[in-house]
Amino acid sequence: MRTAVIVALVLATAARANAAPLQKLTRDEVIRAGNAAAASLPPVDKTASAACKSKFDAAMTHPDIDAPTLAAAAACYRAAGALGAAITLWGQVLQRFPNTREAAGALHELGPAYELAGLYDNAADKDMDYANKYGGEPDALPRITRAICLWQQLGREDQLRRAYYSLKRWKKAPHDPATICDGIVPIVVPPPDAQAPAR
Question: Could you tell me the CA-to-CA distances from 150 to 83, 97, 115, 122, 130 in Å, in that order?
């Protein structure tokens, strides 16, 4: 299944190389795409998830839990395929320990995790937050570009204006709205009559 998804993404990227700018999706298309993305997630490894629960359960209820423990629990659940639990824990790391190395790691993981789950607005927000906070990192420019392309498809004009303003910090960054998303894999919208894949 993963091989098929990777092949589809590579083909979609190649097809985008000379494609027209990304088109704004309708509300129905965004919902269908989000549902299809969530339905295509691999199943949770219940044994691994249970192991995470038993390993971190006591620490999670302790009022003095630290950032490394929360981050380790998030990584454990993510490895088990429990994306929702990982997203929740990364959010807690950001909220409770905002200026730590673990918060940087959590913010790095959240954008792609939200996108995998089909939560495209949240994905773009977290990609933008990461790019703004960690602009010196090598993947900051691709993250802000991804946020722009998601917001372009979602029709979020206010966020697009903010993102283009932030993008001006990178002198070598592409600034042309007509070409910035060239080569970017768009949100994949299944046809209206397509059934979600069986899980």
Answer: 20, 28, 9, 10, 15
